[in-house]
């Protein structure tokens, strides 16, 4: 099995760096599972979980990635995003608070109101943080 060097970079710095066997992301066009020596692409990403599978496929790193882009070349993969967190670095209490705030804002806003889209995105980010933090990584992926 071969590997591909993968970085996840945000304005706050490099969140992830590793040589992995497969990178699974949700692009705007759907799920992508990228293996080494993949055709070069650039694709916009959804606010979604990124799974980085290691060579034996049992070890998987989980990163909450809040949109951005993936760039794939023959030699490396780079994910660039405004924000991303490793599962272990997610502050669950903060995400719960952000979720409650976003829900409260959405309750008072109409879909066409100023601030609705922003509150909706905040809700999506907090939900992704909570679902990522809740992954049980003691059970190997099938
Ligand atoms: P909050 O209201 O809690 O700030 P947010 O979704 O508005 O949430 P962002 O603007 O997406 O926050 O992120 C700002 C910075 O804080 C980023 O660097 C992001 O990685 C980090 N961050 C936000 N929420 C969390 C969290 N729950 N755990 C760890 N890091 C977080």
CATH topology tier name of the largest domain? ATP Synthase, domain 1
Low-confidence stretches: none
Helix content: 10-25%
User: CATH superfamily of the largest domain, please?
Assistant: F0F1 ATP synthase delta/epsilon subunit, N-terminal
Question: What ligand species are in this complex?
Answer: adenosine-5'-triphosphate
Number of strands: 8
Task: State the CATH class of the largest domain.
Answer: Mainly Beta
Class derived from helix and strand content: alpha+beta
Report strand %.
35-45%
Backbone CA Rg: 16 Å
SSE sequence, one letter per element: EEEEEEEEHH
CATH architect. name of the largest domain: Sandwich
Terminal Cα separation, in Å?
18 Å
Whole-number average pLDDT?
Answer: 94
Main β-sheet description: 8 strands, mixed
Total helix count?
Answer: 2
Q: What characteristic shape results from the CA principal axes? A: globular
* Number of domains as seen in the coordinates: 2
GO molecular function: ATP binding; hydrolase activity; proton-transporting ATP synthase activity, rotational mechanism
Membrane topology: Peripheral membrane protein
Subcellular location: Cell membrane; Endomembrane system
Domain ATP synthase epsilon subunit C-terminal: 89-133
């Amino acid at each position: 099995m071969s590997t591909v060097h993968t970085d996840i970079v945000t304005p706050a710095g490099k969140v992830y760096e590793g040589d992995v066997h497969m990178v699974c992301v949700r692009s705007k066009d759907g799920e992508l599972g990228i293996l080494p020596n993949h055709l070069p692409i650039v694709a916009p990403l959804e606010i979604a979980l990124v799974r980085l599978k290691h060579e034996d496929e049992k070890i998987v790193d989980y990163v909450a990635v809040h949109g951005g882009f993936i760039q794939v070349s023959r030699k490396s993969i780079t994910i660039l995003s405004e924000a991303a967190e490793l599962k272990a670095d997610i502050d669950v209490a903060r995400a719960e608070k952000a979720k409650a705030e976003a829900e409260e804002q959405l309750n008072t806003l109409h879909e066409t109101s100023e601030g609705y889209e922003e509150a909706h995105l905040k809700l999506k980010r907090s939900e992704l943080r909570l679902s990522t933090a809740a992954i049980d990584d003691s059970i190997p992926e099938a």
